[in-house]
Amino acid sequence: MSRLARFEAALQGLERRSRRRRLAPLQGKDFASNDYLGLAGSPRLKAAVSEALGRGVPVGAAGSRLLRGNHPEHEALEAEAAGFFQAERALYLGAGYAANVALVSTLPQRGDLVVCDALVHASVHDGLRDAKAEVAFAPHNDAQAIADTITAWRARGGRGQPFIVAESLYSMDGDRAPAADLLGLAEAHDGFLILDEAHATGVFGAGGRGLGEALEGSQALIAVHTCGKALGVSGALVTGPAAIVDTLVNRAKPFVYATAPSPLMAAAVREALRIVADEPERRARLHALVGFAGERLARLGLPASGSQIQPVILGQNARATATAARLQAAGFDCRAIRPPTVPEGTARLRISLTLNVDENAVSALIDAVTEGLSEAAA
After folding, report:
1. Are residues 141 and 265 in the same domain?
2. Looking at beta carbons, which pairs linking 41-46 to residues 24 or more positions away fall under 8 Å?
3. Which domain holds residue 200?
4. pLDDT higher for 337 or 257?
């Protein structure tokens, strides 16, 4: 038997269940990326990177932040980000995935409780594998269920601190968490809310500061602001109290043992935050596009999410992949999302609205989706 047989068999099994993933080239109109504000190709970002190179900012950090990888660009970004998000401190990590793993694997300790929304990102699940605290999951967007879980834990003798983990805007459904209610629970129980703002940063809140913007300043709030989505670059910023950031610097393995993010990317993120502050018309245009898409979907009897993430639930994996293939053949880069990324039986198209398309493209896509659904049902 070939030494690769078990891997080949596993891949064949994924193929039979219409769950095998493949890399695909960039082609067609962008309805798949998270470049919501169209910043990835921004002339201002290009100029900022060029200027940084010109003044000697290196491409690579060449070491951990705790060794020789701590560049002035990292520290300048963190200072500016703390001011932008009105937080006591900010910490720059290489990715949102690493930030979530760092938070949930480092902060909760034995005797604590972590209560997660049922639909939190896979990065949280991976971080929980190293968590020392008790872990529970609550039904999606059900603040009362989270409250009941904490109350029951206290009744059983729980004396530590609860950590509530949620996304402010969910990446596959496009719906919002009851963030204010969750923060209220965290504050009432001497705990913390870890709020992943990945898909809200730059898009929602005053100044594009996210859906948790009104909650800023609470010592119970720890936020993750991903830089590779609406900000158009890469990495992630954790914002919150100084004691939390310093704990991560001292104890979080994804920070301590990782080569620091590129100083050049730190310079690019600084400029991206300035663009978000200076050009509110980008958010206005995106929200107008979301409203336009919602109206068109409603006319066709499809539910609108009210955000830039619009799922079209198809149920069966094969139906989702076939519909996505038809759209791609028609010139629309729209992808099928299948389990385990989403729950079983909820395979879907994930339509991402960005400033890389206009209303004409959105109308054409929705017409093609409708036609594709009719063909798939026939």
Report:
1. yes
2. 41/232, 42/232, 42/272, 42/275, 44/271, 44/274, 44/275, 45/232, 45/233, 45/268, 45/271, 45/272, 45/275
3. 57-278
4. 257
